């Protein structure tokens, strides 16, 4: 059976068995339980995570104590605080597990070494980065131009499985609406 990370990478680039073994040697696998953090606001971030199994959320808490969810992450998604990871500064966000999760992570140092030694992986991450920027741009545009109902319907259309896995209060925090408003959108 093909390793799920290899399958994921080979959606963009092809790898020989030896190349994949080399890539995989730069990663570590961990398991986290529901509610455990992988990134906490104010900490230095040295890892980028690939989700084998589970669901996570990236968020921040504003000065009034309100949670704002920036991103969810599910199987085959990458997640970290990218500004903190790339710039090697303290995180502005937190990431924790909504479900028990299995993750692979690569450290900043190992990612730098891997991309320097294997240009295929440099191309892979460049493409993933572009895809991520497009998703972020679409999210910002949706927040700016769509009504709450349109945003909810778009979320339903794009990620129907997410609504089965994530509590409604988190969906509301992602959409920037109250739970009451979300209940009205849901009816």
Automatic annotation (TrEMBL):
Transmembrane segments: none
Pfam entry (one): cNMP_binding
Domain Cyclic nucleotide-binding: 33-114
Protein name as it appears in the record: Crp/Fnr family transcriptional regulator
Species name: Aquimarina mytili
């Amino acid at each position: 059976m093909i390793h799920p990370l290899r399958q994921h990478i080979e959606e963009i680039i092809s790898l020989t068995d030896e190349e994949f073994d080399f890539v995989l040697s730069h990663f570590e696998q961990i398991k986290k339980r529901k509610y455990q953090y992988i990134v906490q606001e104010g900490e230095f971030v040295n890892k980028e995570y690939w989700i084998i199994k589970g669901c996570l959320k990236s968020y921040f808490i504003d000065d009034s104590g309100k949670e704002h969810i920036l991103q969810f992450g599910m199987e085959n998604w990458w997640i970290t605080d990218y500004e903190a990871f790339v710039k090697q500064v303290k995180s502005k966000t937190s990431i924790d597990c909504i479900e028990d999760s299995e993750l692979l992570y690569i450290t900043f140092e190992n990612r730098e070494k891997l991309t320097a030694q294997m240009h295929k992986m440099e191309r892979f991450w460049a493409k993933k980065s572009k895809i991520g920027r497009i998703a972020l741009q679409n999210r910002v545009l949706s927040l700016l131009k769509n009504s709450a109902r349109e945003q909810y319907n778009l979320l339903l259309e794009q990620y129907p499985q997410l609504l089965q896995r994530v509590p409604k209060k988190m969906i509301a925090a992602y959409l920037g609406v109250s739970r009451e408003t979300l209940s009205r959108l849901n009816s």
